[in-house]
Amino acid sequence: GGGSGGGGGGGSRDAAESRDVLSSVDLSSVDVGEQRRRWRQFARSRPQRPGGGAGGAAEEAERALAALGAPAEGGTLRLARNADLLVAAAEYEYAHGRYRQCYALTSQVLGLDPFEPSVLPVHICSMARLKLHSELFSLAHELVEEYPQQAVPWFAVGCFYHMVSDFESARRYFSKATTLNHRFAPAWVGFGHAFAAQDESDQAMAAYRTASRLFPGSHTPWLGIGMEYLRTNHLPLAMHYIKQAHAIAPHEPAVLHELGVLHYASGEYAEAADYFTRVAEHEGDYDDAAREPSIFNLGHACRKMRRFDEAIEWYRLPPPPPPPPP
Fold first, then answer.
1. What is the rounded CA–CA span in Å between residue 5 and residue 223?
2. Predicted confidence (pLDDT) per residue in 2-17, tens digit
């Protein structure tokens, strides 16, 4: 879905910038509950830009954890006026399928600066995921009026057309975005999604490969390539690429779900059930909408293993309620 699935902003900071951001923000009032747990997980999983230093992602995560280690004094995480950290938080929420929370954070950034470039890609992606038709149309029009020679406005237009299933138009505008800025990875991801939506696997994989070269820290291009191989029943190649996505983003629901689908297609129902369960049972980590396909497929996997009572339990779970307006 949503022409933007995983464009996610594409903006991981290098090691020095990450340290500067963390040291400049007062994190002394981090709540000891959910916020701290999620930020600790974020600090460990955040990809490092190539060339970001010899320390590596693990060392950088420890520095981030040290910055988060101040004793809590109650209250919530003080991010209200730090755009860099708000963008990082939005990217984390987007990657975990929590599009409404992502949209709330990106809207907060745009409240500080209506055209903050670092937040616009993930903001646009979250709008497409939430099917905010009129809001995305208005934003795209405004961006095109203000910045017609930049890639982001045309990316927004492409996302709008992808959202309304006009994939030919989406491809045209994603192509215009990549022409204006060949290194704008979110547009290449959107280009791949638009080709994939029309079952044009070769062109989709070419776009995803370009995106993977431009942003090797993102799991989305590898997942897209793997899903195309899975769709065309090239299961070993699908496994290779989806495993690459999993190595980059081991907790992301789309990656776990597709690994489950791949094992299911291979007749490995126990392994499929394991991956589906990792999403289905983590109600606090993922949005209900992100969990729903894994819940349904977990019922299928249990049925294939003749665990009929378990299958019935999963099938009987009520569908998630429609989300309230943002």
1. 11
2. 444 444 444 444 445 5
